[in-house]
Amino acid sequence: MLKERCGVLGLYDFEGNTVSARVCEGLYSLQHRGQEACGAYSFNGRELVGLKGPGMVSQVFDPSSLANITGNAGIGHVMYPTTSIDMVESCQPFVFKSGEIQFTLAFNGTISNFVEARKNLESKGVQFTGRTDTEVLAQQIATRIERGGTYFEAFEDCFKELDGAYSMVLVTGQGDLYGVRDPVGFRPLCFGRIPEDTIVIASESVAIETLGGELERDVHPGEVIRVSKDGVEKRRLLSLERHALCMFEYVYFARPDSNIQGKNVYETRVRLGRSLARTHPADVDIVIPVPDSGRSAAFGYAEELGCPTGEGLIKNRYIGRTFIQPGQRTREYSVKLKLNPVRQVVKDKKIALIDDSIVRGTTMRRTVRLLKATGAREVHVRPSCPPLISPCYMGIDFPTKEELIAPNRTVGEIANFIEADSLGYQTIEGLVSSIGLGKCELCLACLTGDYPLRKKIDLELMESTLGDRG
Ligand code: SF4
């Protein structure tokens, strides 16, 4: 199964200054969205120039490599693929060159109807060089441009033909920057302006703020933003009633200092904790977060209960996040290296343990065992997300349904599996009201099995083919 989560960034400097160093600085702010590979490309007035490869931003880029990436319109990407596909093939930005046409794009998401869309393009004579859905996206765009269409028309084609999640930035061979969000708006994308007259389009507002800019607003689902020497042009090409922003952005993925759809992520997580405490209070001595993703919710949970919080688990920051490590063996190895308990905080305590979610249950079981081995009297587990019962086909690192702990098990059975004294999940109602957006604005498919995809998708086929692409 393809497992992918990414961050994208685009910059356009109206004064003509090279943007690549700032693209990299922005990518540092998005590094939490993917640590396996990254890249940056710009248009230098003649051609697209850039660099991409496996590793974090600090490993792939240095001042001398950046000096070669000139141009006032540039994009960047951070990624983690957890697929068998060759890392080099999966790395973005993707560069398309054919005759006079060239562009580079980076996207966050998954084209859910990848198989049909590729076959459709092949039937029109398009030849593919790889197996990634990034190439499907690029070829869908190129097909229209090669026939003399505009980029706006090409994105309109994408909206018609491609289902799934794609928040995208793209720089053309004319030096224009585009930001595009799919019509359902699964993945976030926002834009703002930084001094010296530069436009930034980014997965998260934190990238704009750390570059010294101000968030203007989220890119609307189905909207295209073009930034060129003529200025900024915004066009809503498709407006649907049903939107589906991934609820996991608030629960886990996004940085707490980001704002998505007008909701601050940190404040949302605190509300999730409060809601959890109202639904599932626990008679405990201390509330302990699983760092870092459970911390903000733990504050809310403790505040609501009037109970102290403590850092009973210390994270080794130099090990990647468990949830986003590729491959089960690497994941298990990472867990062992990742958390260490603070005996003075944990010993003889009744603990409410707050984490964002329980996926397979194995990580949580290990954490509970760790706390008990350190002398905890009781461990009451409170995930700030409701039970995950269905896979994600929109670009998130999810295991198959068989690997998830929650489907076909009662809460009691899960509590037994993770060896907790009690387990109390967030409710879907608590989640939605904590986020503060309507149900019809959020994707909740991994909680409900109800996929807000526009085309009829063969989910079994999706599952069987996801592992073969990037
Ligand atoms: S299925 Fe779950 S993880 Fe995937 S986009 Fe929807 S809410 Fe997000």
Strand content: 25-35%
Low-confidence stretches at least 5 residues in length (pLDDT < 50)?
A: 466-470
Enumerate the distinct ligands.
iron/sulfur cluster
Q: What is the second-level CATH architecture of the largest domain? A: 4-Layer Sandwich
What CATH first level of the largest domain would be assigned? Answer: Alpha Beta
CATH superfamily of the largest domain: Aminohydrolase, N-terminal nucleophile (Ntn) domain
Count of β-strands? 23
Question: Which class best fits the helix and strand makeup?
Answer: alpha+beta
Return the CATH topology of the largest domain: Glutamine Phosphoribosylpyrophosphate, subunit 1, domain 1
**Order of neighbouring strands in the sheet with most strands:** 3-2-4-1-10-9-11
Query: So how many helices?
Result: 18
